[in-house]
Amino acid sequence: MRRPPDGANRESRDLRRSVAERKGPGKPGSATSSLDELVEEVNRQILSDMRRFYSPQVVERLHDPRNPGPMREANGHARITGPCGDTMEIWLRIDERRVARATFMTNGCGPTIACGSMATELATGRSTDEAATVEQQDILDALGGLPEASRHCALLAASALKGAVLDYLQRGRATGENEG
User: Fold this and answer.
1) Quick one: what percent of the chain has pLDDT higher than 90?
2) Which strand (E) or helix (H) includes residue 138?
3) Which residues partner with 89 through β-bridges?
4) By CB neighbour count within 10 A (0-12 exposed, 13-18 middle, 19+ buried), where does 2 fall?
5) 9: burial class by Cβ within 10 Å (0-12, 13-18, 19+)?
6) Which of 88, 91, 100, 168 has the fewest CB atoms below 10 angstroms from its CB?
7) pLDDT tens-digit profile of 140-159?
8) Residue 35 is inside which H or E element, if any?
C-alpha cells in the first residue's frame, strides 16, 4: 500500500479541524453534519439495493441477526468452512434431547449471516432428531429464498446445525449422559 506524502495526513487533519471549528460540530452545514447526512444516504441506498435482491426475512436478519455469538454452556458445537471460504459455527444447548438454545457465528457474507440466524431459529425448541433433519431447503423456504449464487449459504448453515447435533450425540455416547 502506498503511503501519502509526508505531511499529507497532517494537512488533511488540520483542514478537517479548521472546517469543523468554523462551522461547529454537529451543526447544520458543518463537516460533521454533512458526513452524517452522507452516511445516512449511503445506508438508505444500500438498504434499497438489498430489498431488490433479498426477501424481507433476509434483510431483517442482516440488520438484526437472531442468536448471534458463542455460547459457553453449549453441549453441542460444530465449525464448518464451506467451499466459498465462509465459516459457520453453531452452538447448541440441549436439555432432555431438545434444543433449548442455539447460537451462531460466521465470518461470511450477509446471506450467510441470515442463514445462520434462521438455522438457529428453526432448531430452537425442536428435538435433536428434528433439528438434525433441518435441510438447506428448509432454511431457504423460511427465508423466502435466496439468489442462486447465495443458496450455498443455507447448505453451510444446515451442515453446521447437523454437525452440532452430532457433536452433542457423540459427547453423550462417550459419557453416557444423553442415552435413552
Assistant:
1) 64
2) helix 136-143
3) 79, 105
4) exposed
5) exposed
6) 100
7) 999 999 999 999 999 999 99
8) helix 31-53
- Give the residue from 61, 115, 119, 57 showing the smallest Cα distance to 86: 115
Residues 6+ apart with CB under 8 A from 174: none
CA distances from 94 to 75, 98, 124, 173, 179 (A): 7, 5, 9, 14, 13
161 phi and psi angles, rounded to 5 deg: -60, -45
Length of the chain: 180
Pair 137, 122: CB distance under 8 Å: no
Per-residue cell: 151: 443458496
In this structure, what C-alpha cell is assigned to residue 42?
449511503
- 8 A C-beta contact, residue 92 and residue 123: yes
How far apart are alpha carbons 95 and 92 in whole angstroms?
Answer: 10
Report residue 25 as a C-alpha cell.
Answer: 460540530
All domains of the chain in start order, with CATH:
9-53 (no CATH), 63-175 (3.90.1010.10)
Neighbours of 18 (CB within 10 A): 11
Q: pTM for the whole thing?
A: 0.75
Contact 50, 62 (CB under 8 A): yes
